[in-house]
Amino acid sequence: MALTLYYHPLSSYCWKALIALYEADVAFEPRSVNLGDPAERAAFAAVWPLAKFPVLRDEARDRTVPESTIIIEHLAQHQPGAASLIPADADAALRTRLLDRLFDSYVHDGLQRVVADRLRPEDRRDPMGVEQALDKIRGGYEAIAPMIPDAGWAMGEAFTLADCAALPALYYADYAVPLSGRPGLAAYLARLKARPSVARALAEAEPFFQYFPLKDG
Ligand SMILES: N[C@@H](CCC(=O)N[C@@H](CS)C(=O)NCC(=O)O)C(=O)O
After folding, report:
1. Is the C-beta atom of 41 inside 6 A of ligand 1?
2. Cα(215)–Cα(105) distance, rounded to whole angstroms?
3. Whether the Cβ atoms of residue 6 and residue 166 lie closer than 8 Å to each other
4. Looking at ligand 1, which residue's alpha carbon is closest to its atom 14?
5. Which atom of ligand 1 lies closest to the CA of 52?
6. Which of 34, 111, 113, 138 is buried most deeply by CB count within 10 Å?
7. Which residue's C-alpha comes closest to atom 15 of ligand 1?
């Protein structure tokens, strides 16, 4: 198969790429990587030295594409079904990329910091770092909330890169900073969860969800 996705079903950034692939109905070989297995980690690091997933291997173009946003940009460029993930209008494309950056850099990054802290031994935890990460998520919510319409998707009728980024960020961050105080974002997350591409990624993650460290609060 021409496209291979290195991923793990529970990984939030992998959801972002999976949602784009499912939206565009692009055929690919999913290659699940267990980073806890030293041999699998080493093999994956030979593909991408940072050993962070998702990574897309496009054999036909002899390209190894890391970083979820760049994977989606790559799909939009080369897969006709994925073209609409980046709006054709240049101004709309910029706003899409801005939302993608806000979701990743504030909400998603803040959440990753909280999760990483929880995975540390108790005597190595950093409460101040966690408070800063929670503030980062709150700041992300504050900036993004006014930009999300009351219906449809982040950019209106078209489902875009911004929505692919939004789902994993909001889904997981909701465990750290509940969206109950943000009805607009909570309603947007509910619409996202009902989207077939998203529902499929979430269903595939379900057997692994027991390993998400914030699942019990
Ligand atoms: N900026 C990267 C972030 C990728 C990332 O942080 N992936 C996580 C999983 S959600 C990972 O590979 N973690 C494994 C590790 O850090 O060892 C992207 O957008 O793809």
Report:
1. no
2. 22
3. no
4. 52
5. 12
6. 111
7. 52
| Neighbouring C-beta atoms of residue 101, cutoff 10 Å | 13
What is the tens place of the pLDDT at every residue in 164-213? 999 999 999 999 999 999 999 999 999 999 999 999 999 999 999 999 99
What whole-number distance in Å separates Cα of residue 192 and Cα of residue 139?
Answer: 21
Please name the amino acid found at residue 140. G
Strand-pairing partners, residue 63, are 58
Among residues 214, 129, 130, 128, the alpha carbon closest in space to that of 171 is found at 214
Q: How far is the CA of 115 from the centre of ligand 1 (A)?
A: 12
Burial 13-48 (b: 16+ CB within 10 A, else e): bbbbbbbbbbbbebebebbbbeeeeeeeeeebeebb
State pTM to two decimals: 0.97
- Could you tell me if 103 and 162 are in contact, meaning their C-beta atoms sit under 8 angstroms apart? yes
- Rounded distance from Cα 93 to ligand 1 centre (Å): 24
CB 58 within 8 A of CB 3: yes
Sheet containing strand 55-58, edge to edge, reads: 29-32, 3-7, 55-58, 63-66
Dihedral, CA atoms, 12, 16, 21, 22, nearest 10 degrees?
80
Per residue in 7-46, pLDDT tens? 999 999 999 999 999 999 999 999 999 999 999 999 999 9
